């Protein structure tokens, strides 16, 4: 089968995309400060309003949690840019802001920065899966897996786990733990973030009480975590995604054709910090989120990519396995319709 790398435009083959993105990579201090102000201030104000609303109706509290959760997603995008060193010109300033935003989003700055850098360096590489990505099995791997491994993978891919239990587990449990890939700096970052979160919990308990604190923070976190996981999922798990073994893998192709353009309504694009322009972000993570749309609009090279809308993105939940023969993601149903569940290996 012909590799998607073979269909690269001359501009990508020759690396001309580097020149195309260069002018968008410089942070704009005024826009960065404006984004900090219009994100953090409303978030803290809504948190306080949610506390006041507890005396009237918890339904009102939950309604405010939807908006606060959206703002927490936007805080995570600022955190994300800081991890790439793209939000502010100063590395130290990025680190300070990133650590603060990381605590608010229940995420360790240095640990996540490290795993996310691996994700960018290996996205779409079949031989380097498992760090900072949504784990994806190939058809052959699934066929030859044990029954237990197949059931576990099917559970992992079920929407109730992927978008229900999964987000809460990731931000409440997984982010509290060190991984085997962590170096000393990442481990200390996890410990520091956990201590900061414990301090916030104790402070919140002292000021407003533990039940009240949890009644506010948990719904906000659930909304933000679910939306964040969904955004990340649809940007790499669509039907015509890009997967290649390392010897055939190409960075530019993986970026432009292995990441979707999730075209959202303006309000949702604002809350999600333009992360839907994920193909450009993967090609050049040094571009601040507020320059991504301009880069896309002014560069025809970046407009011929896989585009998803809210409606079409729902279909991505039906894609579970990478079929190398067809060069696309398929569902469990498609697999069962065309081949036996297990491959029998002759003795």
Q: Can you give the mean pLDDT?
A: 90
Largest sheet: 3 strands, mixed
Q: Could you spell the SSE succession in H and E letters?
A: HHHHHHEHHHHHHEHHHEHEEH
C-alpha geometry: globular
Total number of domains: 1
Taking the alpha carbons of the first and last residues, their distance comes to 30 Å
Give an account of the 3D structure.
Helix 4 packs antiparallel against helix 5 (91-104), helix 4 packs across helix 6 and helix 6 crosses helix 10 (184-207). The chain has helices at residues 10-13, 17-22, 29-53, 58-84, 91-104, 109-122, 139-143, 147-157, 159-173, 184-207, 210-234, 251-257, 266-271, 278-283, 292-298, 310-313, 332-338; strands spanning 137-138, 261-262, 307-308, 321-323, 328-330. The two termini are 30 Å apart. The strands form 2 sheets. It has a 3-stranded mixed β-sheet with strand order 1-4-5. A two-stranded parallel sheet has the order 2-3. It has one domain. It is built from 17 helices and 5 strands.
């Amino acid at each position: 089968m012909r590799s998607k790398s073979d269909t690269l435009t001359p501009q990508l083959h020759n690396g001309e995309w580097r020149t195309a993105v260069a002018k968008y990579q410089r942070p704009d201090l005024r826009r960065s400060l404006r984004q900090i102000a219009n994100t953090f201030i409303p978030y803290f104000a809504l948190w306080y309003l949610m506390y006041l609303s507890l005396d009237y109706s918890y339904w009102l509290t939950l309604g405010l949690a939807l908006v606060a959760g959206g703002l927490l997603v936007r805080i995570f995008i600022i955190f994300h840019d800081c991890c790439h060193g793209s939000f502010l010109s100063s590395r130290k300033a990025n680190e300070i802001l990133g650590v603060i935003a990381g605590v608010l989003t229940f995420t360790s700055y240095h640990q996540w920065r490290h795993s996310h850098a691996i994700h960018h360096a290996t996205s779409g590489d079949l031989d380097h899966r498992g760090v900072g990505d949504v784990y994806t099995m190939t058809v052959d791997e699934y066929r030859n897996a044990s029954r237990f491994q197949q059931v576990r993978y099917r559970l992992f891919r079920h929407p109730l786990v992927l978008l229900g239990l999964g987000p809460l587990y990731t931000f409440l449990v997984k982010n509290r733990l060190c991984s085997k890939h962590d170096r000393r700096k990442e481990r200390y970052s996890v410990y520091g973030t956990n201590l900061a979160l414990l301090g916030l919990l104790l402070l919140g308990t002292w000021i407003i009480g533990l039940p009240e604190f949890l009644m506010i923070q948990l719904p906000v976190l659930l909304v933000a975590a679910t939306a964040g996981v969904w955004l990340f999922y649809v940007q790499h798990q669509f039907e015509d995604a890009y997967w290649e073994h390392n010897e055939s893998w190409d960075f530019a192709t993986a970026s432009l054709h292995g990441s979707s353009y999730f075209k959202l309504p303006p309000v949702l694009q604002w809350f999600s910090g333009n992360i839907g322009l994920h193909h450009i972000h993967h090609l050049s993570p040094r571009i601040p989120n507020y320059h991504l749309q301009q880069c896309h609009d002014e560069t025809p090279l970046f407009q011929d990519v896989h585009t998803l809308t809210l409606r079409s993105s729902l279909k991505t939940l039906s894609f579970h396995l990478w079929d190398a023969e067809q060069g696309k993601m398929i569902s469990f149903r498609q697999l069962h319709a065309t081949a036996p569940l297990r491959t029998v290996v002759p003795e």
